[in-house]
Design a protein that fits this description.
alpha/beta, four-stranded mixed sheet, 8 helices, 18% strand, globular
Length: 243
């Protein structure tokens, strides 16, 4: 069984949402000033210069204190049940009104468990959009990543938007031997050509999931275009419904 990593541009999704919202607002008896404010909220739902998540609610971006990140277990001797518990915690936080969640992962096992947890959470609650960043504060040996997660769409809306922008995209398989830098360049090239990228990942292979996560983190730090990319992990058609 394989999972699919869907990658798309923040600006592309925001503009599509703004267009959809504007069409709805045109049919409503509201002032043009109100329409402009609604459109600004739709386009401004993400900070494209930093890639950080924000929300349109008053004061949330400036006044909120960042909570401690969740931590993925990197101990290979610990049961894989910890992955399911991590997914459950992500779902719980979004159900209680959290706008975003951060997961800290150090090492291959922790990165892979985070990726699996995001796929499980998406199957339960709807698309968990995320981007990965290198944790520059981490000084110990081994790569350390932080996964920034947001929940903005239902699966119905995600698939409707994805179908509009993914017609020509092809599934890109990832193996344990895939080079991280080469993968990052391939993702950028594919995104420039087709606007979206779909990666085929073996969810049972920790190295494959780690390579994908590190390539995404590399894109965040090395390319303005890469900093606009966000991702959703999902099961392909035939497993987990249409996710």
């Amino acid at each position: 069984d394989r999972s699919v990593l869907s990658i798309f541009s923040l600006s592309g999704m925001a503009l599509l949402e703004a267009a959809r919202m504007m069409r709805s607002l045109r049919s409503m008896p509201v002032s043009s000033a109100l329409r402009r404010r609604f459109c600004a909220a739709a386009v401004g739902s993400t900070n494209l210069s930093t890639g950080e998540w924000t929300t349109a609610s008053a004061g949330s971006a400036d006044e909120a204190i960042a909570p401690e990140p969740l931590k993925a277990s990197g101990n290979p001797e610990v049961s894989e049940e910890t992955t399911k518990k991590l997914a459950g915690k992500v779902c719980q936080l979004f159900r209680t009104g959290r706008d975003s969640v951060v997961i800290a992962a150090t090492g291959e096992v922790a990165a892979a468990r985070t990726m699996r947890a995001l796929a499980i959470a998406s199957a339960k609650m709807g698309p968990a959009e995320f981007h990965a960043k290198a944790d520059e504060s981490h000084k110990a040996p081994g790569s350390s990543l932080r996964f920034h997660v947001a929940k903005r769409y239902s699966w119905t809306r995600f698939k409707r938007i994805w179908s509009l922008i993914s017609a020509e995209s092809k599934l890109m398989p990832i193996t344990p031997g895939t080079d991280t830098n080469s993968l990052a360049r391939a993702i950028l090239a594919e995104q420039r050509k087709h606007r979206v990228v779909a990666l085929s990942l073996n969810p049972s292979n920790d190295t494959v999931l780690k390579v994908a996560a590190e390539a995404l983190a590399l894109l965040q730090s090395s390319s303005p275009q890469g900093a606009e990319l966000i991702c959703v992990l999902r099961w392909p058609s035939g497993r987990g419904g249409h996710r």
